[in-house]
Amino acid sequence: MALRLYNTLSGEKELFVPREPGKVGMYVCGVTVYDYCHIGHARAGIVFDVIYRYLCYSGYDVTFVRNYTDIDDKIINRANREGSDYRTVADRYIAAFDEDMERLGLKKPTVEPKATDHIGDIITIVQQLIEKGHAYESEGDVYFAVESFPSYLKLSKRNLDDMLAGARVEVGEKKRHPMDFALWKNSKPGEPWWESPWGKGRPGWHIECSAMSMRFLGPSFDIHGGGKDLVFPHHENEIAQSEGANCCQFVTYWLHNGFVNVNSEKMSKSLGNFFTIRDVLELFDAETLRFFILSAHYRSPLDYSDQNLREARAGLTRINEALAHLDAVLAAPAGASVPTSATELTEKTDTLAQRFREAMDDDFNTAQALGILFDLVRTLNRTLAEAPAPDEATRSVLDRLRRTIDQMGEVLGLFRQRPADWLAARDAEKARNLTLTTAEIEALIAERNEARKSRNFARSDEIRAFLLSHSIQLLDSPQGTTWQAVGQ
């Protein structure tokens, strides 16, 4: 099966055919660096990190560009409130972004340009647009003339006439048309500025991405990504100014990840449901957050809640427990027994890589890929329960399975810790605020297991009740008994 991806421009899944065989150029809009990143940024970062990883896994030579917007009204306003300058604010939050993305396990892009390093490129494009009749200068500002570009709004599928009904020209703007957008802004007193043919000023938001993508990927490239909130106006305006300047198709495939809601409501500071990545990582580890985000298809809405994160952690725990058991079996001497489910395990192992590729080739369906992994874990648990010390033939299958799961983990950015280490860290976190130590809890669980074997159910229930009184909930399953702190 060949890779097919959903193209926002066409509104359909399309066969992926790069412009140059074996190579992919991909640009993803980065952050405006004026504050700490929120969970919406985490989703976009993780989604396009997995797409980048999968393209590399598929054998492509990928040039991945993700920018920093380091000059913007929000950055200037933050600097003014702090009594500092825009560069101090931008540098601080670039460093914070890098730290957050590293904690989430993102690979570094090929290039991470800053807008202010490409002022010359921006000025050149604006001059080209003026020369070709797509832009005009007005008292130090330069605007793109949307009526000069007949296919404007082809990405968002909007109608220019319908949009005019609610459009208006803000005070101080010198536009010919209400929908025209700024390419270059005349700097106000006290604002940072750069020299230009139109006087001292700074770039508009949209033009910087055209300039940086063209610099590193050329006038036409394969994939442009970002959140759905960027379809209009940002990406729509990128298309207009880029194609207006270069007279060729800007991007072949446009990919957009879905929104993050919080408890089924749109995330908003005014609603008090706004969470930074750092807020979330105080409560849940980075692997759990990543696993949660990948458990939904990237184009679907994602509902953030503590309960959904706890369920993601429980799912990740099941996988890590199975992998830790598998690692222990592979480290032990071979046995002589052959499990009755070995044939099923062999069949699923033989097709695992193919099934994983089919899921990912279907518009990067990470939710389906994780479903395949859960199915495999169930079979693995049955196999190891029937034969704790499998024979050499079965061990060979298990070893091949482990290596394939490692490859899947590399694509998804999961299982970066040894399973036993992840489980130990989880247990330590669970025990942090408890009145009982982990050793005491495990000892009571062992005593309860013995009581159940001897059919002393009264003592078993007594231990469960005692642990619950200390905020410890027991979870019984065919694989044994685990525990969690109440509320975790």
UniProtKB/TrEMBL annotation:
It comes from the Bacteria. InterPro entries: Cys-tRNA-ligase, Cys-tRNA-synt_Ia_DALR, Cys-tRNA/MSH_ligase, Rossmann-like_a/b/a_fold, tRNA-synt_1_cat_dom, tRNAsynth_Ia_anticodon-bd. It comes from Trichlorobacter ammonificans. Its main location: cytoplasm. GO terms for molecular function: cysteine-tRNA ligase activity. The lineage of its organism: Bacteria, Pseudomonadati, Thermodesulfobacteriota, Desulfuromonadia, Geobacterales. This is Cysteine--tRNA ligase. A motif ('KMSKS' region) lies at residues 266-270. Its EC number is 6.1.1.16. Keywords: Aminoacyl-tRNA synthetase, ATP-binding, Cytoplasm, Ligase, Metal-binding, Nucleotide-binding, Protein biosynthesis, Zinc. Gene3D superfamilies: Cysteine-tRNA ligase, C-terminal anti-codon recognition domain, HUPs. It catalyses: tRNA(Cys) + L-cysteine + ATP = L-cysteinyl-tRNA(Cys) + AMP + diphosphate. Binds 1 zinc ion per subunit. Its cofactor is Zn(2+). Residues 355-423 form the Cysteinyl-tRNA synthetase class Ia DALR domain. Zn(2+) binds at residues 29, 209, 234, 238. Monomer. It is found in: Cytoplasm. Belongs to the class-I aminoacyl-tRNA synthetase family. A motif ('HIGH' region) lies at residues 31-41. Pfam families: DALR_2, tRNA-synt_1e. Coiled coil: none annotated. ATP binds at residue 269.
